[in-house]
Amino acid sequence: MATNRASTSSISSFSLPVRVYYEDTDAGGVVYYANYLKFCERARTDWLRAIGFEQGRLSAEDGVVFVVRSVKADYLQSAVLDDLLEVVTTIARLGHASVVFAQKILRGDQAVFDAQITIACINLTSKRATPIPPAVRAQFATLV
Length: 144
Fold this sequence. Notes:
Layout (H helix, E strand, L loop, with lengths): L6 E4 L2 E7 L13 H18 L4 H8 L1 E12 L8 E11 L3 E10 L2 E14 L10 H10 L1
């Protein structure tokens, strides 16, 4: 992918290009393992923004935030400095108060990282799981 802009190439998935910078790598010159999760976080946040829901607004107006509940990750290949990666995100399962995202990071046609990340919707006041706001859930439902 040669563009630096996020794209919604299809309704059911979101793609975000990510360039690997020196700061993303470890002492061995490969992407530090936790940074793959950061790349995935950016993609989920940008997808939410692309469908009309900014996290700051959800927090201020609806009193909810999305937090990571669990991660199942497979590190398949090493990404290195200057690689152009593509983070592809889809919704694997939509629950009442949670969403499971399937995310993979590609270098060209080669998968370097694959994860299933469960995100919970949390009420800011009670700090407990709460239903996903109806407008957000309805939009998510069109993307499953």
